[in-house]
Design a protein that fits this description.
Elements: E1 4-7, H1 10-13, E2 35-40, E3 79-82, E4 109-114, E5 119-124, E6 130-135, E7 144-149, E8 155-159, E9 164-167, E10 195-199, E11 205-211, E12 215-217, E13 222-224, E14 227-233, E15 239-246, E16 252-261, E17 267-272, E18 278-282, E19 286-292, E20 297-303, E21 308-311, E22 317-320, E23 323-328, E24 333-338, E25 346-348, E26 353-356, E27 362-367, E28 373-378, E29 385-388, E30 394-397, E31 402-406, E32 412-417, H2 431-434
Length: 441
């Protein structure tokens, strides 16, 4: 395992000001069987679904609604030299106790879309309790899927039938904290008091969302000037458009047209590298996109088929389906390996292990350099989505009612249940953003 410099998002790690030791000593896991516990919270979910489910009509218009205004102050970037889970090396003077964002040591969430219900669940990764469930479009028919969490903890979700919604993580940041959900049985009418903005789009397909890092301000203990990438198309045969939104308001700042047909779904997965550049993949392969945030220039390469998509700490995009494929920007070449996955989410942990879903009732750990399978851990059911929390746990999200928290060392599996046919396999915690790296060369 190598040490590397990270820009850390306090949103999910939740370190208070002043610093805290965060190394939990995780390495490679044992080969023993799983230990399973179950925690039930909220209503039971619906039955399993397989593949894309479309629903609802797209919203019209591309103009963003005004959200919370950004904070001002002197900028200062906070970095971490880490091995495993990061330690804090310098403090933030603006928050309680002097740490990043002042979020506290108990602030850690995963955001999962309940696609047919038109909602997103906010689940505490430590207590396994659902602390909020939110409608993400007025008509409830947006079919939300991919979620992305920024380094302040705020979440954005794309509705597959059009429209992007941003939800504040902290009550103190919500426009109306007196009118916000407390869990699955308390879904507020549109719009919940913690929704910062909703930007409608006249797209029939809109899937990826990916935050940029922004710049850390030690005066406000927040990341400022955050942006949000998304992409969509007005029909299955229309050309794909890639967009950059203002993270605080949802206003579209730039739109990059492409000459690539959506071929039904368009850009299927998206992530950023350490410079905030957008990388996007398509379900049936065809094209890997890159948009450079500095000048909004577009690059694209031929690509293999891929379901899940992520960018590793070395700035290399991965697509994850029946084969895992890794793109090296410096050489503009692909490496691939078959691991027996049928296609699902994937994400890299702090130990340079890519965790992959879509392999039956298991999750696979793959070394990102050798591309060899180094761990196989059983889970109670089929997992479609993968995310990593800031304590090093692997989260595997089903398409039924469950999400499983997997400790890769002990192989302990804890079950959250109460979701409604979820369909999320993106950066649900903000961990991937926090450890993103720049491409070499």
């Amino acid at each position: 395992m190598r040490n590397r410099t990270w820009i850390l998002g306090f949103t999910a790690l939740g370190l208070a000001c002043g610093g805290a030791d965060g190394d939990d000593g995780r390495g490679s896991g044992a080969d023993g069987g799983s230990l399973v516990t179950t925690i039930t919270d909220g209503n039971s979910g619906g039955g399993d679904t397989d593949g894309e489910t479309e629903g609802g009509s797209g919203d019209s218009g591309n103009s963003g609604n005004s959200g919370n205004s950004g904070n001002s102050g002197d900028d200062g970037e906070i970095k971490f030299d880490i091995g495993g889970v990061p330690d804090v090396n310098n403090s933030c003077g603006g928050g309680p106790g002097g740490g990043g964002s002042g979020l506290g040591t108990d602030f850690s969430y995963i955001w999962v879309a309940n696609s047919p219900e038109g909602t997103v669940s906010k689940i505490n990764t430590q207590t396994l309790l659902e602390e909020g469930r939110y409608l993400v479009r007025a008509d409830g028919s947006g079919s939300p899927s991919r979620t992305s969490v920024n380094l302040n903890g705020d979440m954005a979700v794309a509705n597959r039938s059009g429209g992007v919604t941003m939800i504040r993580a902290r009550l103190d940041d919500c426009p109306d904290p007196t009118n916000t959900s407390t869990g699955a049985g308390d879904v507020k009418a549109w719009q919940d008091g913690c929704i910062a903005w909703h930007t409608p789009f006249a797209y029939s397909t809109q899937r990826p969302v990916a935050w940029t890092q922004g710049t850390f301000n030690t005066g406000t203990c927040r990341y400022e000037n955050t942006k949000l990438w998304t992409a969509g198309a007005t029909s299955s045969n229309a050309n794909i458009e890639i967009l950059l939104l203002d993270g605080e308001t949802g206003v579209v700042e730039s739109m990059v047209p492409t000459t690539q047909s959506a071929n039904t779904y368009g850009v299927y997965g998206g992530a950023v590298d350490g410079d905030g550049n957008f990388w996007g993949s398509m379900l049936s392969g065809q094209v890997l996109f890159k948009v450079n945030i500095a000048d909004m220039s577009l690059q694209q390469w031929s690509a293999p088929s891929g379901y899940g998509m992520t960018v590793d700490p070395q700035g290399r995009p991965w697509t994850c389906q029946s084969q895992l494929a890794r793109f090296t920007p410096a050489t503009e070449t692909w490496d691939s390996v078959s691991v027996g996955s049928a296609g699902g989410g994937c994400m890299v942990d702090a130990n340079d292990v890519l965790w992959v879903a879509g392999s039956g009732s298991t999750v696979l750990g793959v070394d990102i350099d050798t591309m060899a399978v180094v761990q196989t851990i059983p889970v109670p059911g089929y997992a479609k989505g993968i995310s990593i929390d800031f304590e090093g746990n692997v989260w595997a999200v089903s398409q039924g009612a469950e999400a499983w928290r997997v400790n890769p060392v002990t192989q302990q599996v804890d079950t959250f249940t109460g979701l409604t046919s979820p369909y999320t396999y993106s950066d649900m915690t903000g961990f991937a953003l926090s450890q993103s790296g720049s491409p070499a060369g």
